Task: structure prediction
Amino acid sequence: MGLHRVKTLIWMGNSRKHVQKFPKEVKADVGTALYDVQKGATPPQAKPFKGVGHGVFEIVTRFDTNTYRTVYAVQIGERVYVLHAFQKKSPKGQKTAKPDVEIIGQRYKEAVELEKEMT
Result:
């Protein structure tokens, strides 16, 4: 089997700063998952993130009663775009807070434009 090319990771907005503030166990989980994505695999803790665009997924990491989300896009082009990272604040339910959804949507559009400029 041939070697797979590892895709470049592009951090949108302050997503990298947010991940850096996560607990070290969460950072390790997110890092491993994103590396899998860069190699073309879908990590087991990733699930589709609906309502923004095609090929958008979120890595859900639970740690110490908190839930952390890292949202990325894989089908924009040759790169992996990390759109947003945050600690989920709502106590129950699957709904992502509206401001977070808006940030993800805006950064998705920015990533699409960035990809056009790079090709």
